[in-house]
Design goal:
The complex is a heterodimer of chains A (about 300) and B (about 375).
Chain A (H helix, E strand, L loop, with lengths): L9 H29 L3 H4 L13 H7 E5 L2 H7 L5 H8 L2 E6 L2 H32 L5 H10 L9 H11 L5 H25 L4 H8 L4 H30 L2 H6 L7 H10 L5 H26 L11
Antiparallel strand pairs in A: 1-2
Helix pairs in contact in A: 1-14, 3-14, 6-9, 6-11, 6-13, 7-9, 9-11, 10-11, 11-14, 13-14
Chain B lengths: L3 E10 L2 E11 L4 E5 L6 H9 L6 E6 L2 E2 L10 E4 L11 H11 L4 H15 L14 H13 L5 E5 L7 H18 L2 E6 L2 H7 L2 E6 L2 E6 L1 H6 L4 H6 L6 E9 L5 E4 L2 E4 L7 E9 L4 E3 L6 E9 L3 E8 L2 E8 L9 E6 L5 E4 L12 H4 L3
Parallel strand pairs in B: 3-8, 3-9, 6-7, 7-8
Antiparallel strand pairs in B: 1-2, 1-4, 4-5, 9-10, 11-14, 12-13, 14-20, 15-19, 16-17, 16-19, 17-18
Classes of the chains: A mainly alpha (about 300), B alpha+beta (about 375).
């Protein structure tokens, strides 16, 4: 059960450390740049050479959440003192706030569609994977291949048929339509990943539970599910990341009520010049839910919950 | 507790027949061993008895109730898996109380039962530990506790000591046997280790290729094997065979081995063709006056005894002799075979010929 490896030498450790740091920098750089840009003023954002040190401003965030219009000096004069801190930021650019932007709605759409389709993919995937793993399913291998084959071309290749189908069914620009679409795309991944995880759970656990007086469903619920938690968590993360970031279908199939954040963010560019800080702010906020979700589920990703309970 | 009867139990997996028409009886309170090499169908038989596998045909009676098509949970039995199958996500206490909770037992009663059982097995100290950190022996005890806590009609164990290291195995074997003696519950135990079977079992079924070869108490099986497979599988070293062509007839008291007559128990049936004379190592004695002779080809020193391999015109024999008896490789020796203990086999079918000596043991089957 225990194994020994030779302790790496000091030089090896140093080399590994440097490698990790370099890799981390490379990965974090774009992210850090986006986060930083969100706090710059538009002129700082496009300054050349790029500004690494700058005076932080919330202008990007204010612009992200508001729609503004340019006002004449006279109008501004008549308005009197700005009422709020964000009013004053906008006034500095000779603008007034005329209302909220649609970012909030789009963001909420992303949450509903992203988490909705993730839940559905994982739920259906777990049940299907359990059946494939434990029961005699006729043509099991062919079915599994068939399920995987839906991933053998880029999903966007079927965009036109889906568009036409959705139009006929009235699913265009609806939450349900997007949830179903993302679930359909994610389900094959979910079934395959989860089948792998469930295959690894020894069937003896369920048999023990069956003998201990549980029904098949109780055995699944009380014994298999807790042990599949690792697999379910990582599958959920993969599904969410796909559904959350998906752009092409979102552009094609949503425009109003069900539009998600990815197609919305670029439209910010067009409103009142190239407002990069607002785009960066939108992207930064958009990153947060997936990040939080991943961090929350991270402890389940650590394998070894089942380690040692069954000797192999 | 329970008496278990198996009648013509059969299991097919597609084209493969795992168990062909097994029949045997396990009396109430017996420690019963299902013994055989891997792939012989012993585990499948046990799983059918437990309800984890549905038989293709045949009947299983637990306490005179036909249960072969019933769910595992309806049979009121407990199963100890080779891998223990402790629920890894809960602690020891929860593992043991699971079977009680599933029956809807009251919490106070559950606590009481768990305490009682853990006292019997000496695991009170680890009740709140997670199962993943436990040693093999403790896991074994927890698995046993989970089995006995429900006071089922019978215990089924599938090579429960298989996952333990050799040293600890011996210890657990004793613990298991004494636990059984205290509780007196019918226990069915699957093993491929003939020594374990002989040591612990009240009765043994020897299986091979899905067929029950013999069924009886350990000593009968050792002394009077029903087939050459059983003779070969049981005992270490196993029974030696002197193979010869010939004929024996009912009432005969000797066989001809290359012109030399060897006395055997009086035979009760005729046979001819390829035959084999089976002899246990401890029933071979070196005697210079004996007419049947061989040559020593190897010796193995085992402390108080030694195993001496002797080459004869009819095949190699292994004899267990006292270590004090001087033997050297190359010695020509006379072999005296203890005539009361010999078995003649029909080497074609592998079946033992019925004689006066094994009639009682083999009579029933």
């Amino acid at each position: 059960m225990s194994f020994s490896v030779t302790e790496p030498s000091g030089r090896q450790k140093l080399f590994a450390g440097v490698l990790v740091v370099v890799y981390a920098l490379v990965t974090i750089m774009p992210l850090a740049w986006i986060i930083a840009t969100g706090f710059k003023t538009p002129s700082d954002a496009i300054a050349y050479p790029p500004k690494v040190v700058f005076e932080p401003s919330l202008e990007g965030y204010v612009n992200l959440f508001t729609t503004r219009t340019r006002a004449s000096a006279e109008t501004l004069e008549n308005l009197g003192e700005p009422q709020t801190w964000y009013d004053s930021i906008v006034r500095e650019n000779d603008m007034v706030i005329v209302g909220p932007s649609r970012y909030g709605e789009r963001f909420l759409n992303s949450v509903i569609i992203g988490f909705g389709s993730t839940f559905l993919s994982v739920f259906l995937g777990t049940i299907a994977a359990y059946a494939f793993s434990r029961f005699k399913v006729p043509l099991k291998d062919d079915l599994m291949f068939f399920i995987l084959s839906t991933r053998m071309m880029p999903p966007i290749a079927v965009a036109i048929p889906i568009f036409l189908m959705y139009r006929e069914l009235g699913l265009n620009d609806t939450h349900l339509g997007m949830i179903l679409l993302y679930t359909a795309v994610n389900l094959s991944l979910s079934v395959w990943l989860l089948k792998g995880f469930i295959d690894e759970i020894p069937v003896e656990y369920e048999e023990a539970a069956l003998i201990d007086g549980y029904t098949r469903f109780q055995a699944f619920y009380k014994v298999v599910l807790p042990q599949a938690a690792t697999g379910i968590a990582s599958t959920a993360i993969f599904c969410l990341i796909f559904a959350w970031n998906e752009y092409a279908f979102a552009v094609l199939l949503t425009s109003g009520t069900a539009q998600t954040a990815p197609p919305f963010i670029p439209t910010i560019i067009g409103v009142g010049g190239q407002d990069w800080p607002a785009v960066a702010a939108g992207a930064t906020l958009f990153l947060l839910p997936v990040m939080v979700f991943t961090i929350l589920l991270r402890k389940h990703l650590l394998r070894g919950i089942t380690f040692g309970a069954v000797r192999k | 507790m329970a008496r278990i009867e198996i009648r013509n139990l059969r299991k097919e997996f597609g084209d493969f027949t795992a168990v062909q028409s097994s029949s045997f009886v396990i009396e109430d309170g017996e420690f019963f061993m299902l013994l055989g090499p891997s792939g012989c169908g012993k585990t499948t038989t046990l799983r059918m008895m437990a309800g984890l596998e549905l038989p293709t045909s045949g009947e299983i009676f637990i306490d005179n109730q036909e249960v072969s098509q019933k769910r595992a949970s309806e049979r009121d039995i407990a199963f100890v898996f080779q891998m223990f199958a402790l629920y890894p996500h809960v602690n020891v206490r929860k593992n043991i109380s699971y079977p009680l909770v599933s029956q809807g037992m009251k919490r106070s009663q559950v606590t009481e039962r768990v305490a009682e059982v853990s006292r019997i097995l000496g695991i009170e100290g680890i009740l709140d530990r997670p199962v993943s950190g436990l040693s093999g022996g403790d896991r074994q005890r927890v698995a046993l506790a989970r089995a006995i806590v429900r006071e089922p009609k019978a215990f089924f164990m599938d090579e429960p000591l298989g996952a333990l290291d050799a040293e600890f195995r011996e210890h657990m074997a004793h613990e298991l046997r004494s636990l059984h003696d205290r509780m007196g519950a019918t226990t069915v135990y699957v093993t491929h280790d003939q020594l374990e079977a002989m040591q612990m079992g009240d009765k043994i079924v020897v299986m091979n290729h899905g067929v029950v070869e013999q069924f009886g108490v350990p000593q009968d099986i050792y002394d009077w094997p029903a087939t050459m497979f059983v003779a070969d599988f049981i005992g270490s070293p196993s029974m030696s065979f002197l193979r010869f062509e010939g004929a024996v007839e009912q009432g005969g008291t000797s066989v001809e081995l290359g012109g030399i007559s060897v006395e055997v128990p009086r035979l009760l049936e005729d046979a001819q063709g390829p035959l084999a004379l089976g002899v246990r190592p401890e029933h071979i004695h070196f005697d210079d006056t004996a007419t049947y002779r061989g040559q020593v080809i190897a010796t193995e020193y085992l402390g108080t005894t030694q195993i001496v391999s002797v080459d004869t015109p009819h095949g190699a024999l292994k004899a267990r002799l006292s270590s004090e008896q001087p033997t050297r490789v190359g010695d020509a020796v006379g072999l005296r075979l203890d005539k009361r203990t010999l078995t003649v086999f029909d080497a074609g079918s592998g079946r033992a010929l019925i004689s006066e000596a094994n009639r009682e043991v083999l009579g029933h089957g």
